[in-house]
Amino acid sequence: MAAQAQQDSAVDSVRDSAADSVRKSVPDSVRDREISVEQEHLDRVYRRLEEKIHEAEFLMNDAAQRGQVGTPGALAERDAQVFRAGIHLNRLNNEFEDFLFGRIDLLAGRDGKKGPDGAYTAVEPAEGAVRDDRTADIAETLHIGRIGVLDAEYSPLVIDWRAPAAAPFYRSTPADPGRVVRRRVIRSKGRQVLGVEDDLMRPEVRAYLDGEELAVTGDGALMAALGQARTHTMRDIVASIQAEQDRVIRAPAASVTFVEGGPGTGKTAVALHRAAYLLYQDRRRYSGGILIVSPTPLLVAYTEGVLPSLGEEGQVAIRAIGSLVDGAEATLYDSPATARAKGSARMLKVLRKAARGALELNDSPTRLRVVAFGRRLELEAGELAHIRDSVLGGTAPVNLLRPRARRLLLDALYERSGAGTRHSDAELAAELRSSFDEDVSSEDAFLAFLDAWWPELTPRTVLAAMADERRLGRWARRVLNPGEVRRVARSLRREGWSVHDIALLDELHAILGAPARPRRRRELDPLDQLTGLEELMPQREETQRERAERLAQERTEYAHVIVDEAQDLTPMQWRMVGRRGRHATWTVVGDPAQSSWSDPEEAAEARDEALNLRYAGGRPAGGASSRGRRFMLTVNYRNPAEIADLAAKVLALAMPGAESPSAVRSTGVEPRFAVVRDSPADTVRAEAARLLERVDGTVGVVVAMNRREEARRWLADLGERVVALGSLEAKGLEYDATVVVSPAEIADESPAGLRVLYVALTRATQQLTVVSAERDVPDAAGVPDLLRD
Ligand SMILES: Nc1ncnc2c1ncn2[C@@H]1O[C@H](COP(=O)(O)OP(=O)(O)OP(=O)(O)O)[C@@H](O)[C@H]1O
């Protein structure tokens, strides 16, 4: 009930703010005047930017001249200056499409304090700022843009959208306006202002700026943004972030910030803007990097342009869950049953056994023969097995246990040699032992034995070994059932990796440990030999600096990790992602109703372990975590009400009792239902072609996973605006219009099929066609069984 009330009020406030814009026809002269006012400001900003660019260039030249002076101090100063000027130039030369996009006109604040960006800090208006006759004066006007610009007197010409002073631009609503009287979105291209869209936050107040009444013009920015045609890349929403979204974006990075919300509530957009915000707010802390984990390469490609458009590049890595392991890229899909086995936490046991069992592949030798102190020494199969078992007793990484195995072999051989009893003097005994070890371990037979008996394993060799069904059956005894063993082994015999294999590779990497690096022997220094230093000093280890460089190169850990579509991560994937943020703060974004994973409880447990959330008592029902900060997004910005209402019917089946987010707009265009007549190819093609004529942007055709290839052929030659997608590939994406083919087929494809269908039905921003086949049992109007009331 409370959630519903909160949701209604969020939608109302969005709608109110749109409605409160004065939509009466505004004379062109007013609009033109307002545009020219903003044009003047933009011109000032660009003049200032040019000055700064000249300044930076001057600094660079100056620095170059200093280089000729040549004293060490001057050189260091030159380097620092060149570095600073370079950063400056880089940012200023960055061509932002709509560099300046917003403005707020504010009442006087409660106190007269200014923040570091030069703007007054008070959120609430001063007493008497609105007079009894409901008139007021504008005390402060702030322009908001992608980066901040100060004038020569250090007054703000443009406030960075992430600065505290810009927050009211996003937070203010007619219900809770704070100091904001008018919020304006400015549309520009390059250096030219094209239009302005105003929303009045205090429509009851007559406000004056420099003696003139505040003008209001335009159609409201949010609706303008939502109605725009979609392309194959996501746009930033920086000009129209809504209050509930802004609270998530600016939430301080706690251990874990959970964000939930239905389809189209802006979760992905918010996650990306949050990454940019965190970097702005504490660049040093996040120099350790931010990782955004995305479900598919398609969603990575769709979203990766957003951060550069927000002025952030480099520090943020957006990676698909199937591309988290370097050098292994997922290209295959597993059947739902195979995926279920591979993703389950049970696999951990199987992998641990496999990693140990893989030592015995390739005809592992069963006897060790060496010659030492002039005697033949031998260890038999039983002794070797005993040594191996005792070394493998714990859970330490298998590759790192090799030195211990080597030591135990030498112990056993030494004992066999009987030399241990030769000296009672400890010093002499130690000397003898050391010369024995040196003798044996430099013997070719011993080295060859060690390589074959304790080979250095890689995750790939172990996974390849698991492709043998009999072997896997042994390693998975009492963990996987015979059907699962067969399916997993068969899937591993294919060429290439599936998204679930990547998590297994990563787990194996942790189980095996990095292969021991061959130690670099120090060059022998004659002086060392003379003084015996060689013996006293251990062989050279990596220096601090070498280590830092290597870690940066192989960055596998991040300062903040954002997980998008988190509801889909399997337990094994949570373990993989968790390893990348062992010391990180987290933002976890998802929607349980869209989960394609069949066992949310098991995944929630793995998630909490990965995120270091521990429970004193039991976990709340439904896989929800009770720890961390939680936010709910409640308004659907993507789907018009007509499409959202249809999708809600599937939600009711998939998750009875779950609330769907409220759509913020409606188009008056109801979803259309078509039935396959002769072949699905003809019907789907005709529907896609029909939609291409009706929308300006993209059309997505969503089919069951096993029809992807077929569907691509159906649509060949319809052009680039249309794409065919498997149901799981549609995650997170959106199109102007979609064709969803055979809801029943999508729903029957996996145990989570209804939730996958819910995803498919919520991808369109304008129009939706549902195509039914026989198995959908369509009624006379073509409405499939699953979508009837
Ligand atoms: N404040 C906003 N202003 C303009 N557009 C917005 C706003 N919030 C969201 N949108 C748009 O709504 C659409 C849906 O956003 P997004 O993809 O982030 O939603 P989502 O919650 O991740 O959806 P899903 O769970 O279905 O993947 C996008 O086109 C996004 O640009």
UniProtKB/TrEMBL annotation:
Amino acid composition bias (Basic and acidic residues), ranges on this chain: 13-32
Tagged with keyword Mitochondrion: no
Domain UvrD-like helicase ATP-binding: 240-640
Compositional bias ranges of the Low complexity kind: 1-12
Pfam families documented for this protein: AAA_19 (PF13245), UvrD_C_2 (PF13538)
Organism: Streptomyces ziwulingensis
InterPro entries, sorted: AAA+_ATPase (IPR003593), DNA_helicase_UvrD/REP (IPR000212), P-loop_NTPase (IPR027417), UvrD-like_ATP-bd (IPR014016), UvrD-like_helicase_C (IPR027785)
Taxonomic superkingdom: Bacteria
Full protein name: AAA family ATPase
Keyword ATP-binding: yes
